Amino acid sequence: MTTVVRRRLRAGVTAIVLLFLIWPLLYIFVSSFKPIREIMGRAELFPKNPTVANYGTLLLARTPVRDFPRILLNTLYVSSLSALLSVALSSVSAYAIARTRELRSGILSKLLLFIYVFPTIIVLTPMYQLFTLIGLWDSYYGLVIVYSGLASPFCTWLLVSFFESIPKELEESAAVDGANAINRFVRIVLPISMPGIVTVGAYAFISAWGEYMFALVMINSSAKKTAALGLATFTAEQYIEWGPLLAGSILIIVPIFVLFLPVSRFFIRGFMSGGVKA
Questions:
Q1: Averaged in consecutive runs of 10 residues, what is the pLDDT profile of the chain (278 residues)?
Q2: Other residues' Cβ atoms within 10 Å of the Cβ of residue 44
Q3: Domain CATH number, residue 193
């Protein structure tokens, strides 16, 4: 088999896989512009009578129980705080691991991803009891703490490879000039490793953006619901409002694409680098 044939075969297989992955999202996007009769009728890709009524119902029909613009703002607030806290925790811990031989070669660095071996549902009840006891149940801050705690181990593992790629000679030169450890970390390490910082921030943001299980247990007030809980209000035992549900799904998916695509190459680079060194 010649090189040209191999490349074309590889390109063809890649295109088929991408189409298989993108097809559901494309169908959801197109269907969000269909009237309910076409959604419930025969499955067709393009709508015969395209409409934006589903988006109008979603964004304009605001009630105390269902206020989707507010729900999006709630999700943005929680996800942004979770990303900031995760970046702060993981950058400090990753720098300590990367610059301390005992930590890098010890059991601590090897246990960073151990939390992901077990399903997170096993900590759901203890988390609920703990946050109810300390008064953080039905609170954004309790949700931010949970999301940051779940994302920080992976963010730390990912950042270690970025920090290890920074030559120690730069910090040693700054130390000779009188810079202390904090100044070296803030003024040298963080700016150079900014692609990694942005990557872990995006990961933490995306993880919090679409999370449902902890939000369902930790949030009770309708005014504090996040995106996943907001979409659930369009489903019931007897009837599902497919039009607003599809439109809401698109409004939730689009920010993830916009945020992840610019940093995807850094994410893959850090993931592969960390995987090789771990």
A1: 78 86 86 86 80 87 79 93 94 87 68 79 89 91 93 88 83 81 85 86 90 91 88 79 88 82 69 51
A2: 12
A3: 1.10.3720.10
